[in-house]
């Protein structure tokens, strides 16, 4: 008998991308995140684009993809409320708290998420963790504050390194830098997010606990698992 191949990570992402379409409210503007899972969501969106009058996007990359399939992209300032924000995550725990920012879009992701009534996280099941922190925590930082913020993470037992693109520091859509922090023990995501948010020079920390996901769609070999 030929063994049945397990689905690839990309196939699991496509599965949850498709499942997320059920959370659209026809005729309402949506929020769209960033990353490879969201790219699959945007592909799925192309098939139902008549239901989506416009989107607010969390990155230049997603904006380009949305426009390419014919969806108008609005500035976040033009919108007061979004029914839904759909985005991926680098890690998610059982309470819907996440680490995000692997794609360097965390600041705009938090802004768009803040406009939305519901955050729907789409991810393959490898992203579900007991405790956040194995994935290096992305932190967007004003360039002149980088070394100061590195030292503050050191004091917490973390090792922060500047994210590079080739031989230069990566520059975000907002003109800032990203530190990736390893070795943190994130026992209380809400408290750590609040604390790091107070540090001068930190634009956004990639802990999404204050703006956790209300629904998480996880792609598994048995189908979509929904956590809510
Ligand atoms: C981008 C993000 C992404 O949602 C996160 O990195 C997950 O990406 P992918 O879907 O490619 O695994 O936070 O800043």
TrEMBL record:
NCBIfam families recorded: PRK00702.1, rpiA
Entry similarity comment: Belongs to the ribose 5-phosphate isomerase family.
Pathway per the UniProt entry: Carbohydrate degradation; pentose phosphate pathway; D-ribose 5-phosphate from D-ribulose 5-phosphate (non-oxidative stage): step 1/1
Subunit note: Homodimer.
Active-site positions on this chain: 109
A GO CC annotation given for this chain: cytosol
Broad EC category: isomerase
Function: Catalyzes the reversible conversion of ribose-5-phosphate to ribulose 5-phosphate.
Enzyme Commission (EC) number: 5.3.1.6
Entries under InterPro entries matching the protein: NagB/RpiA_transferase-like, Ribose5P_isomerase_typA_subgr, Ribose5P_isomerase_type_A
Catalysed transformations (reactions): aldehydo-D-ribose 5-phosphate = D-ribulose 5-phosphate
TM regions (residue ranges): none
Organism, scientific name: Simplicispira suum
Keyword tags: Isomerase
MF term (GO), any: ribose-5-phosphate isomerase activity
Listed name of the protein: Ribose-5-phosphate isomerase A
Entry annotated with the keyword Isomerase: yes
Record-listed substrate binding positions: 34-37, 87-90, 100-103, 127
A biological-process GO annotation: pentose-phosphate shunt, non-oxidative branch
